[in-house]
């Protein structure tokens, strides 16, 4: 997933940034509310991880700006506040969930997985596409019950395409969601991952088709 991390504390920000990148996510880390809103205006994110207490404007202002722009991006707030009134207020003002500092990074992962399933209304992280089963939470792909050896970035590519099965996803959008801002990669890198993924799905009902001049689409073959 592509995450926007808003945290001014160097220690916590670095720990969360490294953890998320290590899990295969692309992360844009900013340290102020104004930079967060600016970054959101320039790119698309799957989730926002937001510190409540920031220099200048606070996290609630960021949430208000996102919701005013009619963005439904999931927002997970990190807060040191323990009063129940603050937590209720967070949810009322547009946050989707919160973590009280200090927290375990495994809990951060679990909360993000739950949030990222909500927009599609999923009650399970496992979906079937013909004879291919994809477990988003478990980062696993299987065919006919046999697990396939799918690399981390290949899985992310498949995840992006399957978020809108049958819909063409442009190459530029895939590049933006698959790679971090600071990765110097060309379109050839994307094509390499597509080629690898196709080889591993070869013979299955699920195909990754090229739409010339546009991008790629994931779809189940007729009869699959």
UniProtKB/TrEMBL annotation:
Q: Which controlled-vocabulary keywords does the entry list?
A: DNA-binding, Phosphoprotein, Transcription, Transcription regulation, Two-component regulatory system
Looking at the record, the residues that make up the Response regulatory domain are: 2-116
Domain OmpR/PhoB-type, by residue range, is 124-220
Q: Name one GO molecular function term.
A: transcription cis-regulatory region binding
Q: Name one GO biological process term.
A: regulation of DNA-templated transcription
Q: Per the database entry, where does the chain bind DNA?
A: 124-220
Among SMART domains, the record links this protein to: REC, Trans_reg_C
- Please name the Gene3D superfamilies in this protein's record: 3.40.50.2300, 6.10.250.690, Winged helix-like DNA-binding domain superfamily/Winged helix DNA-binding domain
| Residue ranges of coiled coil | none
An annotated GO cellular component? protein-DNA complex
Q: Which PROSITE patterns match?
A: OMPR_PHOB, RESPONSE_REGULATORY
Q: Record keywords: Transmembrane included?
A: no
Q: Any stretches that span the bilayer, and where are they?
A: none
**One Pfam family cited in the UniProt record for this chain:** Trans_reg_C
What's the protein name? Two-component system response regulator TctD
Could you tell me which species this protein originates from?
Aureimonas phyllosphaerae
Q: Which residues carry this modification: 4-aspartylphosphate?
A: 51
SUPFAM superfamilies in the record: CheY-like
**Transcription regulation in keyword set:** yes
């Amino acid at each position: 997933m592509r995450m926007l991390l808003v945290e001014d504390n160097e220690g916590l920000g670095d720990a969360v940034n490294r953890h998320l990148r290590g899990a295969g996510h692309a992360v844009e880390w900013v340290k102020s509310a104004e930079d967060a809103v600016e970054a959101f205006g320039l790119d698309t994110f799957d989730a926002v991880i937001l510190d409540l207490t920031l220099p200048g404007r606070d996290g609630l202002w960021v949430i208000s700006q996102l919701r005013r722009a009619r963005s439904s991006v999931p927002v997970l707030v990190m807060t040191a506040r323990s009063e129940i009134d603050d937590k209720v207020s967070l949810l009322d003002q547009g946050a989707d969930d919160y973590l009280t500092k200090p927290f375990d990074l495994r809990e951060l992962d679990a909360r993000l997985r739950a949030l990222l399933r909500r927009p599609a209304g999923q009650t399970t992280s496992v979906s079937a596409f013909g004879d291919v089963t994809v477990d988003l939470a478990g980062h696993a792909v299987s065919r006919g019950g046999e697990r396939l050896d799918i690399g981390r970035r290949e899985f992310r590519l498949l995840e992006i395409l399957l978020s809108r099965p049958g819909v063409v996803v442009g190459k530029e959008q895939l590049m933006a969601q698959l790679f971090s801002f600071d990765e110097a990669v060309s379109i050839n890198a994307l094509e390499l991952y597509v080629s690898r993924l196709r080889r591993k799905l070869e013979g299955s009902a699920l195909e990754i088709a090229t739409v010339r001049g546009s991008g790629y689409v994931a779809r189940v073959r007729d009869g699959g």
